TrEMBL record:
UniProt region (Disordered), positions on chain: 13-38
GO cellular component: a single term: membrane
Source organism per UniProt: Pseudochelatococcus contaminans
Name of the protein in question: Putative Zn-dependent protease
Peptidase M48 domain residues: 61-241
Compositionally biased region (Low complexity): 22-36
Gene Ontology molecular-function annotations: metal ion binding; metalloendopeptidase activity
Cofactor(s) it depends on: Zn(2+)
One GO biological process term: proteolysis involved in protein catabolic process
Keywords linked to the UniProt accession: Hydrolase, Metal-binding, Metalloprotease, Protease, Zinc
Amino acid sequence: MSVALGLGGCVINPNSREGPDTTPVVSPAPPAATTARPGEREHRRLVASFGGVYRSPAAQRLAEDVVSRLVPASDRPDINYRVTILDSPLVNAFALPTGNIYVTRGLLTLANDTSELAGVLAHEMAHVTANHALARDELEKRSDLISKVNTHVLKDPEADKTFRSNVQGTIAGFSREQELEADRIGIRTSARAGYDPYGAARFLEALDASTRLGRAGGQQQGTAASFMATHPGTQQRVSQAVRAAREIAPPGTGSRDRQTYLAAIDGISWGEDPGNGQVRGRVFRHPLLGITFTAPEGFALDNSGQALLGVANGGELALRLDAVELDTAAPLDKFLASGWINGVTTESTTLTTINGQPAAVGVARGQEWVFYLGAIRIDKTVFRLVIATRQPDPAIQNMFLTSLESLRRMTPAEVRAIRPLRIRLVTASPTDTPETLAAQMAISSMALERFRILNGLRQGQSLTPGERYKVVSE
Protein backbone atom coordinates (compact mmCIF):
# COMPACT_ATOMS: atom_id res chain seq x y z
CA MET A 1 0.00 0.00 0.00
CA SER A 2 1.04 3.59 -0.27
CA VAL A 3 0.64 6.61 1.96
CA ALA A 4 1.57 10.24 1.55
CA LEU A 5 5.13 9.86 2.82
CA GLY A 6 5.82 6.60 0.99
CA LEU A 7 6.49 3.13 2.36
CA GLY A 8 9.50 0.87 2.28
CA GLY A 9 7.51 -2.39 2.09
CA CYS A 10 9.63 -5.47 2.26
CA VAL A 11 8.87 -8.91 3.54
CA ILE A 12 5.90 -10.38 1.70
CA ASN A 13 1.94 -12.27 2.47
CA PRO A 14 -5.80 -11.60 25.37
CA ASN A 15 -2.39 -9.85 25.08
CA SER A 16 -2.03 -6.17 25.78
CA ARG A 17 0.67 -3.70 24.88
CA GLU A 18 2.51 -2.36 27.89
CA GLY A 19 5.95 -1.64 26.51
CA PRO A 20 9.15 -1.23 28.52
CA ASP A 21 10.59 2.09 29.59
CA THR A 22 11.40 4.24 26.59
CA THR A 23 14.98 4.53 25.37
CA PRO A 24 16.59 7.30 23.30
CA VAL A 25 16.25 5.33 20.07
CA VAL A 26 12.84 3.63 20.32
CA SER A 27 9.87 5.88 20.88
CA PRO A 28 6.48 4.72 22.17
CA ALA A 29 3.22 6.18 20.92
CA PRO A 30 3.09 9.85 22.00
CA PRO A 31 0.75 10.78 24.87
CA ALA A 32 -2.43 12.54 23.85
CA ALA A 33 -1.30 15.82 25.39
CA THR A 34 1.96 16.00 23.46
CA THR A 35 2.60 17.20 19.93
CA ALA A 36 2.30 14.35 17.45
CA ARG A 37 5.54 13.28 15.81
CA PRO A 38 5.94 13.74 12.02
CA GLY A 39 3.92 11.28 10.01
CA GLU A 40 1.43 10.63 12.81
CA ARG A 41 -1.57 10.85 10.48
CA GLU A 42 0.01 8.38 8.06
CA HIS A 43 0.85 6.13 11.01
CA ARG A 44 -2.78 6.07 12.19
CA ARG A 45 -4.09 5.39 8.71
CA LEU A 46 -1.63 2.59 8.11
CA VAL A 47 -2.33 0.93 11.47
CA ALA A 48 -6.06 1.06 10.84
CA SER A 49 -5.70 -0.50 7.39
CA PHE A 50 -3.76 -3.45 8.85
CA GLY A 51 -6.24 -4.36 11.56
CA GLY A 52 -4.90 -2.15 14.33
CA VAL A 53 -2.07 -2.61 16.79
CA TYR A 54 -1.43 -6.13 18.04
CA ARG A 55 -0.94 -5.98 21.78
CA SER A 56 1.70 -8.32 23.15
CA PRO A 57 3.99 -6.94 25.87
CA ALA A 58 6.70 -9.58 25.44
CA ALA A 59 6.87 -9.34 21.65
CA GLN A 60 6.77 -5.54 21.75
CA ARG A 61 9.54 -5.42 24.33
CA LEU A 62 11.72 -7.77 22.30
CA ALA A 63 11.26 -5.79 19.07
CA GLU A 64 12.14 -2.54 20.83
CA ASP A 65 15.18 -4.11 22.50
CA VAL A 66 16.43 -5.38 19.15
CA VAL A 67 16.07 -1.96 17.53
CA SER A 68 17.84 -0.34 20.50
CA ARG A 69 20.75 -2.72 19.90
CA LEU A 70 20.76 -2.16 16.13
CA VAL A 71 20.68 1.64 16.13
CA PRO A 72 24.25 2.25 17.41
CA ALA A 73 25.51 -0.20 14.76
CA SER A 74 23.59 1.48 11.94
CA ASP A 75 24.79 4.10 9.46
CA ARG A 76 22.57 6.73 11.13
CA PRO A 77 22.60 6.25 14.92
CA ASP A 78 20.96 9.67 15.30
CA ILE A 79 17.58 8.51 13.92
CA ASN A 80 14.76 7.92 16.39
CA TYR A 81 12.60 4.83 15.70
CA ARG A 82 9.21 3.56 16.80
CA VAL A 83 8.23 -0.08 16.34
CA THR A 84 4.59 -1.12 15.89
CA ILE A 85 3.28 -4.69 15.71
CA LEU A 86 0.28 -4.89 13.37
CA ASP A 87 -2.65 -7.24 13.96
CA SER A 88 -2.37 -8.95 10.59
CA PRO A 89 -1.69 -12.61 9.72
CA LEU A 90 0.17 -11.51 6.59
CA VAL A 91 3.94 -11.87 6.67
CA ASN A 92 5.08 -8.30 6.11
CA ALA A 93 7.27 -5.48 7.37
CA PHE A 94 7.80 -1.92 6.16
CA ALA A 95 8.97 1.49 7.28
CA LEU A 96 8.10 5.16 6.91
CA PRO A 97 10.81 7.79 6.34
CA THR A 98 9.82 9.23 9.75
CA GLY A 99 11.35 6.20 11.52
CA ASN A 100 8.12 4.29 12.06
CA ILE A 101 8.81 0.57 11.57
CA TYR A 102 6.00 -1.97 11.27
CA VAL A 103 6.02 -5.73 11.56
CA THR A 104 2.97 -7.97 11.44
CA ARG A 105 2.21 -10.68 13.96
CA GLY A 106 2.25 -13.04 10.99
CA LEU A 107 5.93 -12.23 10.49
CA LEU A 108 6.67 -12.82 14.17
CA THR A 109 5.13 -16.30 14.04
CA LEU A 110 7.29 -17.22 11.03
CA ALA A 111 10.66 -16.10 12.43
CA ASN A 112 12.53 -18.57 14.62
CA ASP A 113 15.10 -16.61 16.57
CA THR A 114 16.12 -13.09 17.53
CA SER A 115 18.74 -12.84 14.79
CA GLU A 116 16.06 -13.42 12.15
CA LEU A 117 13.94 -10.62 13.61
CA ALA A 118 17.06 -8.45 13.79
CA GLY A 119 17.67 -9.09 10.08
CA VAL A 120 14.15 -7.92 9.24
CA LEU A 121 14.30 -4.83 11.45
CA ALA A 122 17.78 -3.88 10.23
CA HIS A 123 16.50 -4.18 6.64
CA GLU A 124 13.68 -1.73 7.43
CA MET A 125 16.09 0.66 9.14
CA ALA A 126 18.24 0.53 6.00
CA HIS A 127 15.32 1.78 3.93
CA VAL A 128 15.09 4.76 6.28
CA THR A 129 18.82 5.54 6.46
CA ALA A 130 19.22 5.21 2.68
CA ASN A 131 16.17 7.45 2.04
CA HIS A 132 14.67 4.82 -0.26
CA ALA A 133 11.06 5.95 0.04
CA LEU A 134 11.97 9.56 -0.63
CA ALA A 135 14.15 8.60 -3.59
CA ARG A 136 11.38 6.54 -5.14
CA ASP A 137 8.88 9.33 -4.52
CA GLU A 138 11.19 11.80 -6.27
CA LEU A 139 11.57 9.47 -9.26
CA GLU A 140 7.79 9.10 -9.52
CA LYS A 141 7.32 12.89 -9.29
CA ARG A 142 9.84 13.49 -12.09
CA SER A 143 8.17 10.83 -14.21
CA ASP A 144 4.76 12.40 -13.64
CA LEU A 145 6.11 15.81 -14.67
CA ILE A 146 7.53 14.42 -17.94
CA SER A 147 4.21 12.69 -18.59
CA LYS A 148 2.33 15.97 -18.17
CA VAL A 149 4.72 17.70 -20.58
CA ASN A 150 4.11 14.97 -23.17
CA THR A 151 0.35 15.20 -22.82
CA HIS A 152 -0.35 18.88 -22.24
CA VAL A 153 2.62 20.74 -23.76
CA LEU A 154 3.79 18.54 -26.61
CA LYS A 155 0.25 17.13 -27.03
CA ASP A 156 1.66 13.70 -27.87
CA PRO A 157 -0.46 11.03 -26.08
CA GLU A 158 1.32 8.17 -27.89
CA ALA A 159 4.69 9.37 -26.63
CA ASP A 160 3.20 9.62 -23.16
CA LYS A 161 1.83 6.06 -23.36
CA THR A 162 5.25 4.73 -24.37
CA PHE A 163 6.95 6.78 -21.68
CA ARG A 164 4.59 5.53 -18.94
CA SER A 165 5.16 1.94 -19.99
CA ASN A 166 8.93 2.39 -19.86
CA VAL A 167 8.93 4.28 -16.57
CA GLN A 168 6.80 1.65 -14.85
CA GLY A 169 9.56 -0.86 -15.43
CA THR A 170 12.19 1.67 -14.37
CA ILE A 171 10.43 2.35 -11.05
CA ALA A 172 9.92 -1.37 -10.45
CA GLY A 173 13.59 -2.06 -11.12
CA PHE A 174 14.52 0.87 -8.90
CA SER A 175 12.48 -0.66 -6.06
CA ARG A 176 13.99 -4.11 -6.57
CA GLU A 177 17.50 -2.67 -6.34
CA GLN A 178 16.49 -0.81 -3.18
CA GLU A 179 15.39 -4.11 -1.63
CA LEU A 180 18.71 -5.76 -2.42
CA GLU A 181 20.62 -2.76 -1.10
CA ALA A 182 18.55 -2.78 2.11
CA ASP A 183 19.35 -6.49 2.51
CA ARG A 184 23.09 -5.79 2.25
CA ILE A 185 22.99 -2.84 4.64
CA GLY A 186 20.74 -4.69 7.09
CA ILE A 187 22.98 -7.76 7.26
CA ARG A 188 26.00 -5.56 7.89
CA THR A 189 24.16 -3.68 10.64
CA SER A 190 22.86 -6.80 12.41
CA ALA A 191 26.36 -8.33 12.36
CA ARG A 192 27.84 -5.16 13.88
CA ALA A 193 25.22 -5.39 16.61
CA GLY A 194 26.40 -8.89 17.46
CA TYR A 195 23.63 -10.91 15.81
CA ASP A 196 24.14 -13.92 13.56
CA PRO A 197 24.45 -12.37 10.07
CA TYR A 198 22.86 -15.48 8.53
CA GLY A 199 19.55 -14.76 10.29
CA ALA A 200 18.26 -12.71 7.35
CA ALA A 201 18.89 -15.55 4.90
CA ARG A 202 17.16 -18.09 7.15
CA PHE A 203 14.12 -15.88 7.44
CA LEU A 204 13.96 -15.32 3.67
CA GLU A 205 14.12 -19.11 3.17
CA ALA A 206 11.18 -19.53 5.55
CA LEU A 207 9.31 -16.79 3.69
CA ASP A 208 9.92 -18.52 0.37
CA ALA A 209 8.74 -21.87 1.75
CA SER A 210 5.63 -20.26 3.26
CA THR A 211 4.77 -18.55 -0.03
CA ARG A 212 5.16 -21.78 -1.98
CA LEU A 213 3.00 -23.66 0.53
CA GLY A 214 0.29 -21.02 0.23
CA ARG A 215 0.23 -21.43 -3.52
CA ALA A 216 0.18 -25.23 -3.26
CA GLY A 217 -2.73 -24.99 -0.85
CA GLY A 218 -4.73 -22.83 -3.23
CA GLN A 219 -4.66 -19.69 -1.12
CA GLN A 220 -5.59 -16.53 -2.96
CA GLN A 221 -2.60 -14.53 -4.17
CA GLY A 222 -4.33 -11.24 -4.89
CA THR A 223 -1.31 -9.07 -4.15
CA ALA A 224 1.37 -11.40 -5.48
CA ALA A 225 1.63 -9.75 -8.91
CA SER A 226 2.14 -6.23 -7.59
CA PHE A 227 4.49 -7.46 -4.90
CA MET A 228 6.70 -9.34 -7.34
CA ALA A 229 6.76 -6.33 -9.65
CA THR A 230 8.64 -4.30 -7.04
CA HIS A 231 10.55 -6.99 -5.16
CA PRO A 232 13.34 -9.28 -6.32
CA GLY A 233 12.60 -12.99 -6.24
CA THR A 234 13.03 -14.53 -2.80
CA GLN A 235 15.61 -17.03 -4.02
CA GLN A 236 17.68 -14.16 -5.42
CA ARG A 237 17.49 -12.42 -2.06
CA VAL A 238 18.43 -15.62 -0.18
CA SER A 239 21.50 -16.14 -2.37
CA GLN A 240 22.64 -12.56 -1.93
CA ALA A 241 21.97 -12.64 1.81
CA VAL A 242 24.15 -15.73 2.20
CA ARG A 243 26.93 -14.12 0.16
CA ALA A 244 26.76 -10.93 2.23
CA ALA A 245 26.90 -12.92 5.47
CA ARG A 246 29.89 -14.97 4.27
CA GLU A 247 31.79 -11.76 3.55
CA ILE A 248 31.36 -10.84 7.22
CA ALA A 249 31.91 -14.10 9.10
CA PRO A 250 31.61 -17.89 8.79
CA PRO A 251 28.41 -19.66 9.94
CA GLY A 252 28.09 -19.97 13.70
CA THR A 253 29.19 -16.40 14.36
CA GLY A 254 27.01 -14.02 16.34
CA SER A 255 24.00 -14.46 18.59
CA ARG A 256 20.78 -16.20 17.55
CA ASP A 257 19.07 -16.06 20.97
CA ARG A 258 16.37 -18.54 19.99
CA GLN A 259 15.05 -19.19 23.48
CA THR A 260 14.44 -15.51 24.23
CA TYR A 261 12.64 -15.14 20.92
CA LEU A 262 10.41 -18.17 21.41
CA ALA A 263 9.46 -17.05 24.91
CA ALA A 264 8.46 -13.63 23.54
CA ILE A 265 6.08 -15.03 20.91
CA ASP A 266 4.62 -17.87 22.98
CA GLY A 267 0.83 -17.40 22.86
CA ILE A 268 0.80 -14.94 19.94
CA SER A 269 -2.20 -15.24 17.62
CA TRP A 270 -1.74 -17.23 14.42
CA GLY A 271 -3.87 -16.84 11.31
CA GLU A 272 -6.97 -14.75 10.76
CA ASP A 273 -8.81 -12.92 13.53
CA PRO A 274 -11.78 -15.26 14.19
CA GLY A 275 -14.00 -12.21 14.62
CA ASN A 276 -13.73 -11.78 10.83
CA GLY A 277 -14.53 -15.42 10.16
CA GLN A 278 -12.63 -18.60 10.84
CA VAL A 279 -11.70 -21.49 8.55
CA ARG A 280 -11.10 -24.95 10.03
CA GLY A 281 -10.56 -27.43 7.24
CA ARG A 282 -13.79 -27.35 5.20
CA VAL A 283 -15.79 -25.52 7.89
CA PHE A 284 -16.22 -21.74 7.92
CA ARG A 285 -17.64 -20.02 11.00
CA HIS A 286 -18.36 -16.33 11.46
CA PRO A 287 -19.23 -15.32 15.04
CA LEU A 288 -20.39 -11.80 14.19
CA LEU A 289 -22.67 -12.97 11.39
CA GLY A 290 -23.63 -15.98 13.48
CA ILE A 291 -23.40 -18.57 10.69
CA THR A 292 -21.50 -21.73 9.88
CA PHE A 293 -20.90 -23.28 6.46
CA THR A 294 -19.20 -26.45 5.23
CA ALA A 295 -17.51 -26.41 1.83
CA PRO A 296 -17.45 -29.48 -0.43
CA GLU A 297 -14.61 -32.01 -0.20
CA GLY A 298 -11.41 -31.00 -1.93
CA PHE A 299 -11.76 -27.21 -1.67
CA ALA A 300 -8.89 -25.14 -0.27
CA LEU A 301 -10.50 -22.17 1.45
CA ASP A 302 -9.27 -18.62 1.99
CA ASN A 303 -11.17 -16.06 4.05
CA SER A 304 -10.37 -12.77 2.30
CA GLY A 305 -12.41 -10.57 4.64
CA GLN A 306 -14.90 -9.58 1.93
CA ALA A 307 -15.75 -13.16 0.99
CA LEU A 308 -14.90 -16.79 1.57
CA LEU A 309 -13.09 -18.04 -1.52
CA GLY A 310 -12.16 -21.55 -2.52
CA VAL A 311 -10.61 -23.53 -5.36
CA ALA A 312 -10.50 -27.23 -6.19
CA ASN A 313 -9.40 -29.56 -8.99
CA GLY A 314 -6.44 -27.38 -9.91
CA GLY A 315 -8.62 -24.34 -10.40
CA GLU A 316 -11.33 -26.08 -12.43
CA LEU A 317 -13.79 -25.47 -9.60
CA ALA A 318 -14.22 -22.17 -7.76
CA LEU A 319 -16.35 -21.16 -4.78
CA ARG A 320 -17.43 -17.85 -3.29
CA LEU A 321 -19.58 -17.16 -0.23
CA ASP A 322 -20.41 -13.61 0.79
CA ALA A 323 -23.13 -11.57 2.50
CA VAL A 324 -25.17 -8.56 1.37
CA GLU A 325 -27.90 -6.46 2.93
CA LEU A 326 -31.19 -6.81 1.05
CA ASP A 327 -34.66 -5.44 1.69
CA THR A 328 -36.75 -8.15 3.34
CA ALA A 329 -39.47 -7.60 0.76
CA ALA A 330 -37.15 -8.24 -2.20
CA PRO A 331 -37.82 -11.69 -3.78
CA LEU A 332 -34.73 -13.90 -3.67
CA ASP A 333 -35.36 -15.47 -7.08
CA LYS A 334 -35.43 -12.01 -8.65
CA PHE A 335 -32.26 -11.18 -6.75
CA LEU A 336 -30.47 -14.21 -8.22
CA ALA A 337 -31.62 -13.23 -11.70
CA SER A 338 -30.58 -9.58 -11.30
CA GLY A 339 -27.18 -10.05 -12.93
CA TRP A 340 -24.85 -9.51 -9.98
CA ILE A 341 -22.18 -11.54 -11.78
CA ASN A 342 -20.94 -9.51 -14.76
CA GLY A 343 -21.30 -11.11 -18.16
CA VAL A 344 -23.42 -13.99 -16.87
CA THR A 345 -26.96 -14.86 -17.92
CA THR A 346 -29.20 -16.53 -15.35
CA GLU A 347 -31.02 -19.45 -16.95
CA SER A 348 -33.29 -20.57 -14.11
CA THR A 349 -34.19 -19.75 -10.50
CA THR A 350 -36.33 -21.52 -7.92
CA LEU A 351 -37.63 -20.37 -4.55
CA THR A 352 -37.17 -22.82 -1.69
CA THR A 353 -36.56 -23.08 2.06
CA ILE A 354 -33.27 -24.19 3.64
CA ASN A 355 -32.94 -24.85 7.37
CA GLY A 356 -36.17 -22.96 7.91
CA GLN A 357 -34.91 -19.87 6.10
CA PRO A 358 -36.16 -18.38 2.81
CA ALA A 359 -33.83 -19.32 -0.03
CA ALA A 360 -33.46 -19.50 -3.79
CA VAL A 361 -31.27 -21.51 -6.12
CA GLY A 362 -30.41 -21.01 -9.74
CA VAL A 363 -28.10 -21.74 -12.66
CA ALA A 364 -26.28 -19.15 -14.74
CA ARG A 365 -23.92 -19.39 -17.66
CA GLY A 366 -21.02 -17.29 -18.91
CA GLN A 367 -18.76 -17.75 -21.91
CA GLU A 368 -16.51 -20.33 -20.24
CA TRP A 369 -18.12 -21.13 -16.91
CA VAL A 370 -21.36 -22.50 -15.49
CA PHE A 371 -22.43 -21.00 -12.16
CA TYR A 372 -24.59 -22.70 -9.55
CA LEU A 373 -26.15 -19.92 -7.50
CA GLY A 374 -27.74 -19.92 -4.06
CA ALA A 375 -29.10 -17.29 -1.69
CA ILE A 376 -30.34 -17.73 1.87
CA ARG A 377 -31.98 -14.91 3.84
CA ILE A 378 -31.27 -14.76 7.58
CA ASP A 379 -32.93 -11.69 9.05
CA LYS A 380 -31.85 -8.72 6.86
CA THR A 381 -28.75 -10.44 5.52
CA VAL A 382 -28.64 -12.55 2.37
CA PHE A 383 -25.82 -15.05 2.09
CA ARG A 384 -24.81 -15.80 -1.49
CA LEU A 385 -23.06 -18.98 -2.54
CA VAL A 386 -21.59 -19.49 -6.01
CA ILE A 387 -19.80 -22.58 -7.27
CA ALA A 388 -18.36 -22.27 -10.78
CA THR A 389 -17.35 -25.12 -13.07
CA ARG A 390 -16.29 -25.42 -16.68
CA GLN A 391 -19.10 -27.74 -17.72
CA PRO A 392 -22.59 -28.53 -16.38
CA ASP A 393 -22.38 -31.55 -14.10
CA PRO A 394 -25.23 -33.06 -12.02
CA ALA A 395 -22.71 -34.33 -9.46
CA ILE A 396 -21.29 -30.84 -8.97
CA GLN A 397 -24.82 -29.43 -8.76
CA ASN A 398 -25.66 -31.94 -6.01
CA MET A 399 -22.42 -31.06 -4.24
CA PHE A 400 -23.40 -27.40 -4.45
CA LEU A 401 -26.86 -28.07 -2.96
CA THR A 402 -25.42 -30.12 -0.11
CA SER A 403 -22.98 -27.36 0.68
CA LEU A 404 -25.68 -24.68 0.52
CA GLU A 405 -27.81 -26.70 2.93
CA SER A 406 -24.95 -26.72 5.42
CA LEU A 407 -25.25 -22.94 5.87
CA ARG A 408 -27.13 -22.32 9.10
CA ARG A 409 -27.24 -20.21 12.24
CA MET A 410 -24.81 -21.11 14.98
CA THR A 411 -26.02 -21.74 18.50
CA PRO A 412 -24.79 -19.39 21.26
CA ALA A 413 -22.60 -22.22 22.56
CA GLU A 414 -21.00 -22.63 19.12
CA VAL A 415 -20.27 -18.91 18.94
CA ARG A 416 -18.67 -18.91 22.38
CA ALA A 417 -16.52 -21.89 21.41
CA ILE A 418 -14.76 -19.98 18.62
CA ARG A 419 -11.28 -19.06 19.76
CA PRO A 420 -8.23 -17.75 17.94
CA LEU A 421 -5.40 -20.08 17.07
CA ARG A 422 -2.16 -19.34 18.88
CA ILE A 423 1.50 -20.27 18.76
CA ARG A 424 2.37 -22.59 21.62
CA LEU A 425 5.72 -24.11 22.54
CA VAL A 426 6.26 -27.83 23.08
CA THR A 427 9.45 -29.59 24.13
CA ALA A 428 10.51 -32.50 21.94
CA SER A 429 11.00 -35.83 23.65
CA PRO A 430 13.53 -38.42 22.41
CA THR A 431 10.73 -40.24 20.58
CA ASP A 432 9.16 -37.18 18.97
CA THR A 433 9.33 -36.56 15.23
CA PRO A 434 8.04 -33.74 13.05
CA GLU A 435 5.06 -35.98 12.33
CA THR A 436 4.14 -36.49 16.01
CA LEU A 437 4.37 -32.79 16.85
CA ALA A 438 2.55 -31.81 13.66
CA ALA A 439 -0.28 -34.10 14.79
CA GLN A 440 -0.76 -31.74 17.76
CA MET A 441 -1.45 -28.81 15.44
CA ALA A 442 -5.01 -27.47 15.34
CA ILE A 443 -4.73 -27.36 11.54
CA SER A 444 -6.20 -29.98 9.25
CA SER A 445 -4.60 -28.79 6.01
CA MET A 446 -0.91 -29.60 5.41
CA ALA A 447 -0.11 -29.62 9.13
CA LEU A 448 3.27 -31.34 8.69
CA GLU A 449 4.41 -28.88 6.02
CA ARG A 450 3.31 -25.92 8.14
CA PHE A 451 5.05 -27.35 11.21
CA ARG A 452 8.32 -27.62 9.30
CA ILE A 453 8.07 -24.07 7.95
CA LEU A 454 7.12 -22.59 11.33
CA ASN A 455 10.21 -24.20 12.85
CA GLY A 456 12.69 -23.71 10.02
CA LEU A 457 13.03 -27.46 9.41
CA ARG A 458 14.02 -28.87 6.04
CA GLN A 459 12.54 -32.02 4.51
CA GLY A 460 13.92 -35.02 6.38
CA GLN A 461 15.43 -32.96 9.22
CA SER A 462 14.88 -34.56 12.64
CA LEU A 463 14.04 -32.90 15.95
CA THR A 464 16.49 -32.24 18.77
CA PRO A 465 15.32 -33.80 22.06
CA GLY A 466 14.84 -31.15 24.73
CA GLU A 467 14.49 -28.37 22.14
CA ARG A 468 11.31 -26.31 22.06
CA TYR A 469 9.24 -26.10 18.88
CA LYS A 470 6.27 -24.03 17.74
CA VAL A 471 2.88 -25.62 17.19
CA VAL A 472 -0.47 -24.00 16.41
CA SER A 473 -3.20 -24.71 18.92
CA GLU A 474 -6.40 -23.23 20.30
